[in-house]
Design goal:
Blueprint: E1 6-9, E2 17-19, E3 22-24, H1 29-36, E4 44-48, H2 52-64, E5 69-72, H3 79-97
Parallel strand pairs: 1-4, 4-5
Antiparallel strand pairs: 2-3
Length: about 100
């Protein structure tokens, strides 16, 4: 974790699948947030989810521990990546350098 500068995290991490012959459930973005907020190391996080209820839960959990983050909502197929997501990467990196 100490070498991470920025993470981009969705709530939906994909369906359960088979890994090494066993069933694997990747969990959710909220599971990741719950793990991260208990870690010493910090980095910026971009939340990108269309799951509104889950997004608010992730956002509030990060705000409760004053974690540098921003939530963007994916729109217009993949256009949000080259527009809002790219701008947010720059914004969070500048904020973390202060």
């Amino acid at each position: 974790i100490s070498s991470v500068e920025l993470s981009s995290l969705d709530h939906d991490l994909g369906a359960s699948r088979e890994k090494n012959g066993k069933r694997f459930d990747p969990g959710t973005g909220r599971d990741v947030i719950n793990f991260l907020i208990n870690q010493k190391e910090r980095f910026s996080i971009i939340l990108h989810t269309t799951n509104i209820d889950a997004g608010y839960g992730m956002k509030f959990a990060l705000e409760e521990v004053n974690w540098n983050h921003k939530w963007i909502k994916p729109v217009n197929d993949l256009d949000w990546i080259t527009n809002e997501w790219a701008e947010t990467v720059t914004e969070l990196r500048l904020k973390s350098e202060k």
